[in-house]
Amino acid sequence: MSKISILGCGWLGLPLAKKLIENGHSVNGSTTSENKLSVLKDAGINPFLVVLESESVSENINDFLGENEILIIDIPPKLRGNNADSSSSLQKIFVEKIQTLIPFIEQSSIKKVLFVSSTSVYGDDNEWVTEKTIPNPETESGKQLLLAEAILQKNKNFETTILRFGGLIGEDRHPVKFLAGKENLENPDAPVNLIHQNDCVRIIEEIINQAKWNEVFNAVAPFHPTREDYYTQKAKLQNLDLPRFNSEKSNVKKTISSEKLESDLNFQFTLDKY
Questions:
Q1: 104 to 29, 65, 80, 93, 109: CA distances (angstroms)
Q2: What is the pLDDT of residues 158-215, one digit of tens each?
Q3: What pTM, to 2 d.p., does this model score?
Q4: Is residue 124 classed as helix, strand or coil in its secondary structure?
């Protein structure tokens, strides 16, 4: 049994925490919403209200990290919204939050860190992307994630594994709902690079169980139909208005490979979920 802290018990962190507890692990979980503390407690999670800003963190951060040995960082680089940093420049806010967190990790018993990142750290100019592909992020969130990855990887006080997820989908979350009925959509021929919530949880479980630290993994299902084919089919299955794509606006051909993850973890994606 491992003692684990999950910074960010949201869409992915909450079901992950539940699964880890089900498998015998002890889990401290954080939320930024006081109303959600009872949800975490009812799930068997030791709940903590932790607010991480670019220059400060909640006083209970040491209790949250506790005597645990593993920290999972699953907080998105929110670059807009009503947080304490929203009035300042968006540049490097997320990176500064990670830098603020680092000394507390160093002073704790945490020896392993799993950082949930994104395949947005790769540029769209690559056709076949592996972990050896040189990252070239084009979005601000991608740039900040890449900088945060480097900060964690360079720290010798703990071992860090980077997990780069593709587009996140689940029973309650699917991009077709946002694309349905829209017209003039770009990149109809671009391959989809998606991963289901269930597979996200299973992959993190395997990284912990197999002690795969100081690694970088891409995590995308080996299922890459074109955007037009995939979202048209999904819209039909859900009786949604069909999305309309513009073949003249097609320049992204990026396919993310998860061959390393499949090989190193002996992992099989649940393709029927896609």
A1: 16, 8, 26, 18, 10
A2: 999 999 999 999 999 999 999 999 999 999 999 999 999 999 999 999 999 999 999 9
A3: 0.94
A4: coil
Cβ pair 56, 100 in contact under 8 A: yes
Query: Tokens 């993190």 appear where?
Result: 204
* For the chain, domain boundaries: 3-171+195-222+255-273
Q: Quick one: 3-171+195-222+255-273 is in which CATH superfamily?
A: NAD(P)-binding Rossmann-like Domain (3.40.50.720)
Q: How many whole angstroms separate alpha carbon 12 and alpha carbon 273? A: 16
Task: Decide: helix, strand or coil at residue 244.
Answer: coil
Distance CA 192, CA 238 (A): 18
What is d(CA 122, CA 137) in angstroms, rounded to the nearest whole number?
Answer: 5
Contact by Cβ (8 Å): 163, 114: yes
Q: How far apart are the first and last CA of the chain?
A: 32
Q: Which residue is listed with tokens 């992307």?
A: 129
- Using only C-alpha atoms, the chain has a radius of gyration, in whole angstroms, of 19
